[in-house]
Design brief:
Layout lengths: L1 H7 L5 E2 L1 H9 L5 H15 L4 E2 L1 H4 L13 H19 L4 H8 L3 H10 L22
Parallel strand pairs: 1-2
């Protein structure tokens, strides 16, 4: 997005939570290419410094036509939850288990189930982005 912002001389600082949520549930049939095109279009269409859902998905019914199975939805949630815990705690499983109010062994089971390496979250290798994306 930074490249699009520079070319278009826009001061975009990020996405609204609703826009992020909508992007997460979108199917993305062309994967990265379609995402790049949507973000470029959103930067062009944005009237504010934050990209809203309508900027990305203007006039399109982009929600999945069917729900994921309960099992798929639960697994996606578990994986994202564990990844976010590890981001926040910088890979410290003990802190993650305290934050989740779960036994450390439960967290390790999920880490193993989803093939997550807590070491990747230490020393800021994987971080939560809080910086401006355009300036």
């Amino acid at each position: 997005m930074t490249g699009f912002c520079k070319v278009l001389k826009k001061d975009i600082i990020g996405f609204t939570p609703a826009a992020i949520q909508r992007m997460l549930v979108y199917d993305w049939p062309d994967n990265v290419r379609e995402l790049q095109n949507k973000v470029e279009h959103a930067v062009i269409m944005a009237n504010k410094n934050v990209i809203a859902t309508d900027d990305i998905f203007a006039g399109a019914n982009t929600l999945k036509s069917t729900f994921n199975s309960y099992k798929d939805a639960k697994e996606r949630f578990e994986r994202e939850y564990i990844e976010n815990l590890l981001k926040i705690t910088k890979g410290n499983v003990s802190s993650a288990s305290k934050m989740a109010k779960r036994y450390r062994a439960d967290i390790y089971k999920l880490i193993k189930k989803y093939h997550i390496d807590p070491e990747n979250y230490k020393n800021g290798l994987i971080t939560v982005n809080t910086e401006k994306v355009c300036s």
